[in-house]
Automatic annotation (TrEMBL), chain B:
This is Tryptophan synthase alpha chain. GO terms for cellular component: cytosol. Keywords: Amino-acid biosynthesis, Aromatic amino acid biosynthesis, Lyase, Tryptophan biosynthesis. It comes from Aquirufa rosea. PROSITE patterns: TRP_SYNTHASE_ALPHA (PS00167). Pathway: Amino-acid biosynthesis; L-tryptophan biosynthesis; L-tryptophan from chorismate: step 5/5. One of its GO terms (molecular function) is tryptophan synthase activity. It catalyses: (1S,2R)-1-C-(indol-3-yl)glycerol 3-phosphate + L-serine = D-glyceraldehyde 3-phosphate + L-tryptophan + H2O. NCBIfam families: trpA. The alpha subunit is responsible for the aldol cleavage of indoleglycerol phosphate to indole and glyceraldehyde 3-phosphate. Pfam families: Trp_syntA.
Amino acid sequence: MTYQVDEKGYYGEFGGAFIPEMLYPNVEELRTHYLEIMNEPSFQQEFHDLLRDFVGRPTPLFAAKRLSEKYQTQIFLKREDLCHTGAHKVNNTIGQILVAKRLGKNKIVAETGAGQHGVATATVCALMGLECIVYMGAIDIERQAPNVARMRMLGAKVVAAQSGSKTLKDATNEAMRHWINNPVDTHYIIGSVVGPHPYPDMVARFQSVISEEIKTQLMEKEGRNYPDYVLACVGGGSNAAGAFYHFLDEPRTQLIAAEAAGQGVGTGHSAATTFLGKSGVLHGSRSLLMQTEDGQVIEPYSISAGLDYPGIGPMHAHLFKTGRAHFYDITDEEALDSALELSQLEGIIPALESAHALAVLPKLQAKPQEIVVINLSGRGDKDLATYQQRLKL
Amino acid sequence: MNRISTVFEKASGPILNVYATAGFPKLGDTMLVLEALQEGGVDIIEIGMPYSDPVADGETIQQSNQISLDQGMTVALLFEQLKDLRKKVQVPVLLMGYINPVLQFGVERFCQKCQEVGVDGLILPDLPMAEYEAEYREVFEKYGLYNIFLITPQTKDKRIHQIDAVSKGFIYMVSSASTTGAKSGISSEQALYFDRINQMNLKNPRLIGFGISDRESFLKASSSASGAIIGSAFVKLLAKSSDLKKDIIAFVREIKGTN
């Protein structure tokens, strides 16, 4: 069993490149060059220098003692929340903008939901002096005003997606349309392990620095280079892909994905794709997708704007289908409780997305000697308004 | 023989292909629109199957898709509306849409239904050539359906020849790098692209679409292809018309120059 993408762009039955002919030249150019570019020594040098000096990597692997005591196991937090811009998203945008430059592109388009990927894209565009357009659902623009302001301060143009449900899925549609209309000079920086091949594989490779560091850091701290569990939240699934990547073929490590159940899987207000989705095609790849019987995409719901996506990356659909990863559905309430718990036990306010991964802890029943690594994908500043309201602060 | 091939063989002038979103402007208007298009003298009809996320389409067609879906349109209902298609309409009919609703309906069941009601071909922009050849071609051909492929100004010559080899009926030539309805009219740069393709000696005829909205752009496009496709401009007409039959017939006659 392989968990890597095959030469046709598939993970088992999931993946592929279901794109209109208008996007074919761009996606094909990327497909034929991405590995070659990423393997160039000069690329590797520039990528790792920026991850170190600009992003602040390696991020710490923190032994969470009070949390460990509470759950009677050994818990480590991978501190992606300490990345510049406040989340793991920047690992991917740094990588992709270096690819874009080598492909001779001078403009960048991106989609964003909560605004984290938009900020990470605007940040690297400012760093590299490239023009940046970010599509964001009109409703998300209202919900996430601080991130909109950050993007604008960084020089990006933020465009409201007015179509459909006016959230992340529609922002992605609009970014793809923008790319169709500007095929020659523009690169599309997708923010997750979704989209047509080679995007899921390329984004997973850029994010794989997370599990690469976990291996080294665990070796230093614990004398073994694998944990018993890796926990990560999954919307599209980029932080999970990065946290799982180097453990995919490590049978001693259990991969645990936390999906946003919203108000509950059966309530009609949920984003738990593996529980509610069926195989289908959206945004260029075949994967699990929340949809009606007629094949129309259903708008998901989660308290966390970053997990509010009707699909899931094809790699994760494959991990689910093969049983390699175990998926938990976490409700809004459970995530909020866990966010409060981490804040008060460890002095770290997590992003709402990451709080979904933390909320697996009460259900996990890990043994005292076992090592549990939780990918703390982002910090909670952007969610303060929600925390204030829901936790009555 | 497939009706699409017959149209190209017998055509005496430029071929006009008109796109209409199914179930639009009102859910029950599908057949009325088709019959009026035929009465006006259209050569090929493209029926849009509405989809929640039509990435290759611009605002006009997106909105018509959403309105149609909100009114209750589904793939199953569309086939129901088309059950007497061939008692009333003789021109070739294509279904245009996105692959996901087809997958959920079941590819073979979908093709079978197409054959049953008398659909001649499909345009599925997010079904690329490689996937088509690997998974779909056999079943499409089993039910006599032509799959229409798109080419754009960015499509390389080698790929155009590959698409030509796989295509039947005609090739859908996208006039510029854009979604539908983005621009209007034909620039001199586009005319050069049309001529370049015209000189490639492809085995399939071409129809030019995207940006064709009136008689002038129709004739200009048709001078370097077998004809042209009008979509967004027609959907706009449907959206504002208060007398569908009369307006549709007048629209087609105006474009064809037969009024």
